[in-house]
Amino acid sequence: MLLIDCPFCGKRNESEFVYGGPAMPARPADPSALDDAHWVDHLTVPPNPMGPVEERWWHLRGCGSWLTIRRDTVTHAIAEVRHGG
Amino acid sequence: MVNIIIVMQRYSILSLARNALSGHRGWAEAWRSPPLKDRYDAIIVGAGGHGLAAAYYLAKEHGITDVAVLEAGWLGGGNVARNTVTIRSNYMRDESIPFYVKSVAMFEGLTRELNFNMMHSKRTMIDVLQTWGMVRDRRRRRLIMDIYGATYEDISVDELRRRVPALTGGRPDSRLPILGAAVHTDAAVNRHDAVAWGYARAADAMGVEMHQKTPATKLLRGADGAIAGVETPRGTVRAKTVALAVSGHTTTLTETAGLRLPLRTINLTAFVSEPVKPVVDVIVNCPDLGVYLSQSDKGELVIGGATDLGQSFRRDIKQSVFEDTVAAMLDLFPRFRRLKLMRQWGGHLDMAHDATPIVSATDIPGLIVSAGWWGGYKAIPAGGAGLAHLIATGRPDPLTAPFGLNRFRTLDYVVETGTTTAR
Asked: ipTM of this predicted complex?
């Protein structure tokens, strides 16, 4: 069970949250300037390191905020929780 | 071209009797441990089910035997040991079902083909349906599976309780009463060690080399950008073709050569109970609750649950997922509440963006990946044969052709769903 330190509610169990998927890299400023391969990579390829990833969690059974957390995929230690993207 | 160079010791009732009389000191080693060369025709990274099967079919079907299978751990470790040995073909998509039908059929002949007892036990899978949405999903699957010769049959709740007497939960007054069930008679279980060892022994007999404790740490590219080989702690090994069959660590390796793939590594829950007397003779799958189980020949209940939601490279399971899975199981099988649970393990899944496997050439010439196998155990024979075909000919075979990486570029996704939890 992850203990997620919601900026509004304090430390809460993972079971209060809904996983919202990996935080994808920032949207390219001008998608029309990209070729298809790079655009599809942007849409489909998430970072998958053995180490820190950023992911979205929705505090559905709490304050309802969307949070972004930075979590290690090996230790599961959470380094940062912030509101929004 | 090197043909069969080693005479494989055949296993039979006679060889068993002969070796029993001589105190079992006369058995030959099942495979060699040759020195690692610095060059091969092809390298397969990962001696799991898919890597070993690919090595075997590469030698048998394509006559390519100058092959090294590099394994970070030991033969029979890895994900081939971290699954629930469920073999089935109840999938959803036209691209998937024929592939899994073929794989299930290949598994059925494997004991004879490899001269290794797979302890194959064809025992039927029964999906316990507790929501109308799931009833409709299974009916849809049944209609598609009918086209491809996979079996799915609806049965009543009474018939379900007759076939699985231990299933006493899900009564009309419960939160999720059982509405019906779907029976997949093709489903089977077998012995995972035997699959790894059987393929390894047969591939070795045709000249393929297996190198344990030899992790590939880095992919090497030549001046022309093509794959040139791999780095290992035992030295550089060169080959013009390198195939990766390393499940959750696919991106870890491809990124050493600058290749990013649409994969996320996640962790899937499984655990076993203490051995008990025979109580369930089918594979029971409860998709609405997210738990499935079968009983092994030793009597242990082998129980599978949901994935841990975020990305994870752990090999243990998360307590909360474990508790949810146990609670779900006790909902339907209240009599299991006093079972002691013995071992737990998490299998790595590298889930592709559209949840369908990838057997494909890549943007790096000579580099081939077999990845994205959630529930890849059932796919070992056909997936291995497809990977071998791709290594040998440079082209996919018809069954794995829909699993190419190009589908992401052309937005031609094969959106597959699990039967239990992986969605």
From this structure: 0.93
